[in-house]
């Protein structure tokens, strides 16, 4: 009985490893695709660095799972010593001309993202929009001062090439590829910013909250 249990656990571990590798490969392939804008990594690092140089605030916004990725970025920007804020937080300051809004609209546009980008632009702030559909013509794309193309599947095109039956069920459904790509992209951004801003791992770690 114990031997069968060990075999079952080994098979399950192999299955998990294979599935994880497939997910990682699918997300990594996003960054090998051609983009309609300069690479999102360089755009983000350049815009954030420029904002920091003029002591501006950085605001982030997204909806759903995209919003969770944006919050994760905001946390790391704060750990890097930057003035970073999530839109709608109780302590979020007003946005102004020296500031930057980083927003995400994977499928091309959302009503709230459109509105927030409009408010940021009307107050003179820069807007960096992350999207998989840079040619969507949405309000937020038009209002962005910088558009960063992340060429990943979202709910705007998750039915493209869809097959039939259980065998064709995607490992990463709906917007999961885009959302996973954002997480990986932001880790690259934080790593590069740490170098550019001269922030050592020890200094970054020291800014982590102890109220947990």
UniProtKB/TrEMBL annotation:
<dbReference type="InterPro" id="IPR017552">
    <property type="entry name" value="PHI/rmpB"/>
</dbReference>
<dbReference type="InterPro" id="IPR046348">
    <property type="entry name" value="SIS_dom_sf"/>
</dbReference>
<protein>
    <recommendedName>
        <fullName>SIS domain-containing protein</fullName>
    </recommendedName>
</protein>
<dbReference type="GO" id="GO:0016853">
    <property type="term" value="F:isomerase activity"/>
</dbReference>
<dbReference type="GO" id="GO:1901135">
    <property type="term" value="P:carbohydrate derivative metabolic process"/>
</dbReference>
<dbReference type="GO" id="GO:0097367">
    <property type="term" value="F:carbohydrate derivative binding"/>
</dbReference>
